[in-house]
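Task card 7
Instruction: Convert sequence to structure tokens.
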Amino acid sequence: MCAVLIVLLTGPRILIALWYLIAPRRWESAFDSAVWPILGFIFFPWTTLIFVLIAPEGNVDGGDWLWLALGFMADFFGSLGGGILRQRSPAY
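Output:
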């Protein structure tokens, strides 16, 4: 259980770092400044990865908003999930 949680928390951040090292021009064309990818790395890693995947030129079209929403929900509900895991139900 702990290993799964560690992979879910660090996995997208490791992938962001590796992908940036492999294809920095894609990241530079997706974002206007370095502030947004850094903030995405810290707070919304899944959303940042999906944005670079679907919008290499920085433009999001029609159905791409669905993918961004899914990435945002993964980040948002993933951060809330830690509190749920800490709650213990009484043993019967």
